[in-house]
Write a structure and sequence with these properties.
By secondary structure, the chain is an alpha+beta fold. The protein has 46 helices and 46 strands. The strands form 13 sheets. A seven-stranded mixed beta sheet has the order 18-19-12-11-10-17-20, with no helix packed on it. Strands 31, 32, 33, 34, 35, 36 and 37 form a seven-stranded antiparallel beta sheet that branches. A hairpin with a 4-residue loop joins strand 21 and strand 22. It is globular. Its EC number is 2.7.7.7.
Length: 1532
């Protein structure tokens, strides 16, 4: 029985078990001393036939092409990753396996290299047991990719190794198996070795064949698309007799191609130690005296002598790097971007990303800068470095009484106590490696606890891996610390004097091996000391600026209804491989063949399939294009992996997209996280390898603030160009959506595809291909021309998102402009692209003050809670408005002044009260060139020159003769700009554009200098300096106005901050310009740096109020006069008005500014309004003209009053419908006001609830129609009425009547009340009818019959008596005017009216108006707002007085004015006096009739005297009618 069982077990084990038993038998014989029967061949392993076929390049290419054709479209999905079968070979020497979903967060996918070896179709079954002995606990799929399948030629083996292999299969314990497997590290003695590229550091070849065989290490289920080395590359061959091979798991490699030298040299391979699953492997090219058996030894026998490996990064030939180096061995490196590690073991490491030259092309390179040291300064107390002692020592050094060494020794002795104090603080924080030395530094900033002077301080340096000292730390011997939180990157840029993208020289560097690599760049080097990096000098290798690779990305998303999140349905990439960054590029340059490539990947939706015919159509397009431009994946995870692979292959320097910061990257990275894409895969979106994903916390909710820190960390190494942010900085548009910008800037129409429409497009092949083509950007059409037997490549450009984003970037010259700004300021290019204007100025000052040995203020980073609003300034002094766009807020230390951002704390520019009206003669606009920067230079205003007072008063002008840092810096910028402008005059073409970009960058930088002083969150905030500058600005403008008015006798009609408008009263433009020349000459001779210049000549001007005017500007070009209408602050230039209202307003404005008569203008406007309202009611106006746009300044959910704001309600509804764009902070929301059919303004539903997106009306009108009455009353009438306020012959009521509205609802307010300007409203009016227009009548009530009637004026009765005959008076007995004053009785019952009753009723009516005034009703002066309240709003915005800001601000920019003002009360009481004033009538009639009039006046005086006296007394109690002479005349 036992024998049967034994035989059964032996049978199940099979031949392999018998072979193992035979091996054990032979081993037993050998150990017993009997090995004669084994013979000489006892250690040799028999190989029946070779495993691989060796083919040349042509055969391999044909084989791959045939396989691709056979398996075209074949997709294998492995756990959601997916890969495309490209028909290429895999490298069976590598055992890497794609980790499972549980392992992916820790493991990394490996990038493999192509291999041109084909496996024979017929060969013996490999030894699975040997593979298992080698692989250990790995997955079963590893058995199919392991190198152990390869059999070797006979080689001598160790018996111990044989025993280990055999026993490993029968080991009872897994740990024992692993232990024995780890011991198997010996290699065969002979045979050619295939060394991993990660181990190669220096190789020379001899007699290298011309053809190339590339080694592909891609496993069978890898994602990577196979790359094939081009023919002509050289072969790497390893010496057969100098090998010692172990099994090495190769880390991810970004391969590169480098030509090999044909000279003979030795092969050097450095050992690499790598731990995986607890075991360590090494590999050395070295001959062992006692070679032992290796499970992979069989591989060596079948490797041909012409084996080649693609050269990876870090490989040297002839002990020289593959990239270009200078004669002195330094590496020229063009830096584009930099990144700093803030935490962990690599804290303080800096990663520079840029370009190096290899051969004739540029490749990406990462420079790892290590050993950065913190630099901080301890400010000592007075006794440490006594001034008198220091002065004596310095004098002794100058007189050579003591040596500099002795001087420094003395300084160290004086600082011994300070050093001990600091040392204790450092040691308490476990900082053991540090250095300290006394140095001389200056300080000139705002901290009150640090003296503003030059003094000796203690400089402290220690590594960044150690924690920083607290910023508020103080000790017995020091009062403050500076530089505690300065970042390593900031110190590196400032100390190495690196200003933006530029050539650097790396004097000492080492090339990183593959295992040590931290980046995905083509090359990677390490610099151990930052001092080994400096600005490169001019040479042939640094003469040109390298082109960059620009990639535009666009995502199409769908909404997951269950989780309410965006999921990616397709992704598209378009790449420009050689984009210039130093000059603008014409479309003909960057669109030429060979410059562009593109790729689109689309996936199946959940539980869906691709529609019938789509696969074939996509395949046809790929064949037509000659590459896979459309790829299909089965899952979102596979799509993301494919996208990352393609992005990695492109090796992009710059990522482009429209709102890519706020949407695309955020969605992409969150989906990567949700789909558990491996770290080694998703990190390829940047250039740093990542072991975990940073926190993707949201950045600022305020739009335009750029990407969040988490996103920027993920894409570190690649610049981010968001055309949404750039267009907001460079353009003035109503909307910054891609659709609008494509139309206005590129003259192209863009089709928008909403997220909720995308699932429906997967229903048919045609619609899905439309979606794919709308995102694939390019269609490549090959046209074969048989006549010349050539093939032309025509690129057809589709108007789609990624393409439009890239085209917009080139159109606006974003790259050269931002690069110039960065080079001037010395900050990071990535920050400039994100709109960090404050950081540009900050780094400009950091560089300048560091060069002067100044200690600079600290910067502290805090969580962001930015709340920015736009302010509208209409007061006499325009408050400071800084919009520098800083991304990081600053939290000052406890001893630094607290800075509030809510309101301006000091007065800004002077804004004169305009002389309103329509001017038809020439008006001159004179403007000071760069007023505030010029003031800084004119008066030498700087941190170093201005003495600040402790009481907070505005400081005095500096008396220092030495030029300050700010004036010197500005002078340099101005002179550079003048030089560039001189070059600009003689330049043309691209040179002209290049110089124009340079002068724009210099101008923007100079004009931003003042902003950093007044911006409360700026690192260099200095309120006293900003106050002094604006004070001088006000004085300069006022003195200029006085000069023009008093000395030159011209009328200044308006002035604003840095400009004045002068009315010449002339019709001759040449004479007007002559006057301008005289004024400019008189003003400029007062100053050294300030210059005023002629900015414009206006033929006609409509001046409405402060900062609101329109004018016809005349410009002379080529001897011809061109007229342009210039608008400033009018409703037509605001975004929250419909196109219909803007067009109507433009028409009215053109008529007003034309040279037609007043009657013709009024008639044209009235006819236009009638025509507009008729067309609107007939439905002949296009839907797009009703669209109103408004921008979301925060997420729609964050609005507390969302129900009262139409654009917020629309955005919230869009989000529910699945829209991803148009409903986030920063988006411009279009909407139309609707109403139910049959209802207009009478509807009870609010305006916000009746607002609809245009798409909602076109798809489902919900029984809604456009609210015509709303548009007539709230969109058209306010615009036209404000423009026509100064035009005679029309009024708001008349305009309302023309629009078909009720005129009674649009009674004109007094223009003085509306503008809160009552000066001269009574005195200047000479005509009684005009003077008292708008006053309410004096209503009297009969004491007997109680009938009410209007009291006529005495003057009207007297004039009737004087002109009419007695019989005519009898005939007019029914006329109230005649009856009341003739008989002094009730017009109805004819009962006599008592004089006392008249007096009492006059008094009661007057008190009623006074009571109305004291109710204190306030109303907004903006007609579209009409907000009314009795509450005081104590908010202050700009220059507004407390209590005048409209509560609807910022939606309304109006001001609260009294609904019934002092002027109204006084005017009404004066009107009562006018009605009852009998004596005044005598002067109003002709002298011939005066006798008859006097008799009648005498009669009436007795009747109205009491009432007139009562009205006069009440009126005289009003202070409005009194003038204090002390306010007009100064006391002597």
């Amino acid at each position: 029985m036992e024998d049967d069982q034994r035989r059964q077990r032996r049978k199940t084990r099979g031949m392999q078990s018998e072979e193992r038993a035979e091996a054990l038998r032979k081993l037993k014989i050998r150990r017993q001393g009997g090995g004669a029967d084994i013979g000489e061949e006892r250690y040799k392993i028999k190989i029946d036939e070779p495993i691989y076929d060796t083919v040349d390049d042509d055969e391999y290419e044909n084989l791959v092409a045939q396989r691709r054709e056979d398996f075209k479209g074949f997709i294998v999905d492995d756990d959601g990753l997916g890969y495309g079968d490209e028909g290429e070979e895999v490298d069976w020497t590598k055992s890497g396996v794609i980790p499972s979903s549980e392992e992916e967060s820790e493991g990394e996918l490996e990038k493999k290299k192509p291999k041109k070896k084909t496996e024979k179709k017929e060969h013996k079954k490999p030894s699975f047991e040997a593979a298992a002995a080698l692989m250990g606990k790995q997955r079963i799929s590893n058995l199919f990719t392991s190198a152990v399948f390869n059999k070797s030629k006979p080689s001598v083996a160790s018996s111990d190794s044989v025993l280990d292999d055999v026993l490993a299969e029968f080991a009872p314990d897994e740990n024992d198996k692993e232990k024995r497997r780890r011991g198997n590290k010996r290699s065969s003695q002979n045979g050619t070795v295939l060394a991993p590229a990660a181990l190669i550091t220096s190789i020379k070849t001899e007699n290298t064949p011309a053809s190339v065989v590339a080694v592909n290490t891609l496993s069978s289920n890898s994602l990577y698309k196979h790359d094939v080395i081009e023919e002509g590359k050289e072969v790497l061959e390893f010496p057969k007799n100098e090998t010692d091979l172990g099994v090495v798991e190769e880390p991810p490699v970004v391969t590169s191609e480098v030509e090999a030298s044909k000279d003979t040299s030795e092969l050097k391979v450095e050992p690499v130690m790598k731990e995986a699953d607890g075991w360590t492997l090494n590999a050395k090219i070295k001959v062992e005296k006692d070679p032992t058996f290796s499970a992979t030894a069989g591989l060596q026998t079948n490797i041909s002598s012409d084996l080649n490996a693609e050269i990876g990064p870090g490989v040297y030939f002839d002990e020289k790097p593959p990239f270009v180096v200078e004669l002195d061995g330094s590496l020229p490196f063009y830096m584009l971007d930099a990144y700093e590690e803030f935490s962990g073991s690599n804290a303080g490491n800096i990663y520079l990303f840029g370009k190096v030259k290899a051969g004739s092309t540029y490749h990406s390179c990462c420079v790892v800068v290590k050993n950065m040291q913190r630099c901080m300064y301890a400010i000592p107390n007075g006794p440490v470095f006594e001034d008198s002692v220091i002065m004596n020592l310095e004098r002794d050094v100058e007189e050579s009484k003591i040596s500099p060494t002795a001087f420094h020794t003395k300084l160290h002795e004086m600082a011994s106590g300070l050093k001990a104090n600091i040392k204790k603080q450092l040691l308490d924080r476990n900082v053991s490696n540090f250095s300290m030395k006394p140095v001389k530094r200056n300080y000139a900033f705002e901290r009150s606890d640090i003296e503003r002077k030059e003094n000796y301080v203690l400089k402290i340096s220690y590594p960044f891996k150690d924690p920083p000292l607290p910023s508020d730390l103080k000790g017995e011997t020091f009062r403050a610390l500076l530089g505690t939180h300065s970042s390593a990157l900031e110190l590196f840029l400032i100390k190495r004097k690196i200003k933006g993208p530029s050539w650097l020289s790396l004097s000492r560097f080492t090339t990183s091996s593959t295992a040590q690599r931290v980046s995905w760049c083509k090359f990677e080097v390490t610099v151990d000391s930052p001092k080994d990096i400096k600005i490169a000098t001019s040479s042939k290798n640094t003469g040109e600026i390298p082109p960059v690779v620009v990639t535009a990305i666009n995502l199409k998303t769908v909404i997951n209804q269950k989780q309410n999140i965006n999921e990616i349905a397709s992704a598209s990439v378009i790449c420009c491989h050689k984009a210039k960054i130093d000059t603008p590029m014409l479309a003909s340059e960057w669109t030429r063949p060979g410059m562009l490539s593109h790729f689109t990947v689309v996936r199946k939706l959940e539980d869906g399939l691709f529609p019938m015919g789509f696969n074939k159509e996509a395949a046809d397009k790929n064949i037509k294009a000659g590459s896979n431009i459309i790829s299909m994946e089965s899952s979102e995870r596979a799509l993301l992996n494919r996208l990352m692979i393609e992005l990695h292959k492109l090796d992009s320097d710059i990522l482009v997209g429209h709102n890519i910061s706020g949407f695309d990257l955020d969605v992409l990275l969150n989906r990567v996280k949700a789909c558990k894409v491996p770290n080694s895969m998703w990190s390829k979106i940047g250039r740093l390898k990542r072991s975990e994903m940073p926190r993707l916390n949201k950045g600022n909710t305020v739009f335009g603030s750029g990407a969040s820190p988490g996103i920027m960390s993920c894409i570190a190494g690649r610049l981010l160009c968001d055309t949404f942010l750039c267009s907001r900085d460079l353009l003035k548009e109503v909307s910054y959506s891609l659709t609008e910008l494509a139309k206005t800037q590129l003259s192209k129409n863009r089709k928008e595809i909403a997220p909720h429409d995308i699932p429906g497009m997967f229903q048919s092949s045609q619609s899905l291909m439309e979606l794919v083509c709308s995102t694939s950007q390019l269609f490549l059409i090959f046209i074969f021309v048989d006549i010349v037997n050539t093939m032309d490549l025509q690129i057809e450009i589709g108007e789609t998102d990624a393409w439009l984003s890239m085209e917009l970037m080139f159109h606006l010259s974003v790259l050269p402009l931002t690069r110039q700004l960065t080079n001037i300021s010395g900050n990071l290019w990535g920050k400039t692209l994100q709109g960090a204007r404050a950081q540009r100025v900050e780094y400009l000052l950091l560089h300048a003050f560091h060069a002067k040995k100044f200690m600079v203020p600290d910067k502290f980073y805090t969580p962001k809670e930015n709340k920015t609003v736009k302010r509208k300034s209409d007061g006499p002094e325009d408050k400071v408005n800084n919009d520098l766009g800083e991304n990081d807020e600053i939290a000052p230390p406890g001893n630094e002044p607290v800075k509030s951002k809510k309101a301006a704390s000091y007065a800004g520019g002077l804004v004169l009260e305009p002389k309103k009206g329509l001017y038809d003669k020439y008006i001159l606009l004179l403007d000071f060139n760069s007023l505030y920067p010029s003031i800084i230079q004119e008066y030498n205003i700087c941190f170093t020159t201005v003495e600040r007072s402790e009481d907070g008063l505005v400081p005095r002008l500096p008396s220092a003769t030495a030029t300050g840092v700010l004036p010197e810096l500005l002078k340099n910028l101005v002179e550079r700009r003048k030089h560039v402008k001189r070059l600009l005059k003689t330049a043309s073409g691209l040179k002209y554009q290049q110089f124009d970009i340079q002068q724009q960058a210099l101008k923007l930088t100079a004009n931003s200098m003042y902003g950093c002083l007044g911006f409360s969150s700026s690192r260099f905030y200095a309120k006293p300096l900003a106050e002094l500058i604006t004070l001088q600005g006000r004085e300069i403008l006022q003195s200029t106005v006085d000069l023009v008015r008093n000395n030159l006798n011209f009328d200044v009609i308006y002035g604003d901050t840095d400009s004045i408008m002068i009315y010449t009263g002339l019709d001759d433009i040449n004479k007007a310009k002559s006057i301008a020349g005289n004024i400019i000459k008189e003003v400029n001779k007062r100053y050294k740096r300030l210059e005023i210049d002629l900015d414009g000549v206006y033929k006609r001007m409509l001046l409405l109020k402060k900062k609101k005017y329109a004018a016809v500007k005349e410009q002379i070009r080529d001897g011809k006069i061109y007229k342009v209408i210039e608008r400033k602050g009018l409703d037509m230039v605001r975004r929250d008005w419909s196109l219909l209202s803007k067009e109507t307003g433009d028409f009215c404005l053109e008529q007003i500014l034309s040279e037609l008569s007043c009657e013709e203008v009024v008639e044209a406007i009235h006819n236009k309004l009638r025509k507009v309202q008729e067309d609107m009611r007939k439905g002949e106006i296009g839907l797009e003209k009703y669209i109103i746009t408004k921008t979301l300044t925060r997420p729609p959910e964050a609005y507390p009053d969302a129900k009262s704001q139409p654009h917020v309600e629309v955005a919230l509804r869009l989000k529910k419908l699945g829209y991803t764009s148009g409903c986030s902070a920063g988006d411009t929301v279009p909407y139309i006001i609707c109403c139910e059919k049959g209802n207009g303004l009478s509807t009870s539903v609010g305006i916000a609830q009746r607002a609809r997106h245009p798409d909602e009306l076109t798809k489902d009108n919900e029984n809604l129609m456009i609210d015509i009455d709303y548009y007539l009353a709230q969109q058209i009438h306010p615009v036209v009425s404000r423009l026509c306020a100064s035009i005679e012959g029309t009024s708001p009521a008349t305009l309302a009547d023309c629009l078909g509205l009720d005129p009674s609802k649009f009674q004109s307010k007094s223009s003085e009340v509306a503008n809160n300007d009552h000066s001269g409203s009574v005195i200047c009016m000479t005509d009684d009818e005009e003077r008292y227009r708008g006053c309410e009548a004096l209503n009297l009530s009969c004491p007997d019959c109680c009938v009410s009637f209007k009291c006529p004026s005495v003057l009207s009765y007297i004039q009737t008596v004087a002109l009419e005959k007695p019989q005519d008076l009898q005939d007019q007995s029914t006329n109230t005017t005649t009856t009341f004053w003739q008989k002094f009785c009730c017009p109805k019952c004819q009962v006599e009216f008592p004089p006392a009753s008249l007096s009492n009723q006059v008094k009661r009516r007057a008190e009623l108006f006074i009571s109305t005034y004291y109710k204190g009703f306030m109303t907004c002066d903006d007609e579209t707002c009409d907000y009314t309240t009795r509450s005081l709003n104590l908010r202050v915005v700009g220059e507004s007085e407390r209590g005048t800001v409209c509560p609807n601000y910022p939606r309304c920019n109006g001001r609260l004015v009294r609904q019934y003002s002092e002027a109204d009360v006084y005017k009404q009481l004066s009107y009562f006096c006018y009605l009852l004033d009998a004596d005044r009538c005598i002067d109003k009639v002709d002298a011939k009739l005066r006798a008859a009039v006097e008799k009648e006046v005498g009669r009436i005086r007795g009747l109205v005297g009491l009432a007139f006296s009562t009205a006069q007394k009440v009126r005289d109690r009003c202070d409005y009618g009194w003038v204090k002479l002390s306010d007009l005349f100064a006391s002597i």
